[in-house]
Specification:
Layout lengths: L1 E6 L2 E8 L4 H9 L8 E10 L2 H16 L7 E3 L3 H9 L3 H4 L2
Parallel strand pairs: 2-3, 3-4
Antiparallel strand pairs: 1-2
Amino acid sequence: MAQVTQQQNTLHFSGNLLINNISETLADVQKLHLEPPLTLDFSQVNEVDTVAVSMILEIQRQLKHAHEQAGAVSVVGVPDNLRSLMQLYGVDGFLLN
């Protein structure tokens, strides 16, 4: 299971971001008040699969929809397995700025 907490403009993710729990995690994110500049912190995440990359892109899309002038989200504390997935899908260049 994954948890998400918010401290100002940073979302802290912990636990496992996997296909079987991403719907609940996204529902939790949608309850939060997202303002740019937004940082996503994955330093406390244990396991991920490809759905974690999709979640990051969806959060970026939602932020841009709510705030047209929003820049890209900042992604920090990226575990090696998530970094590998970002590289595999070719999104590491703009997600890991």
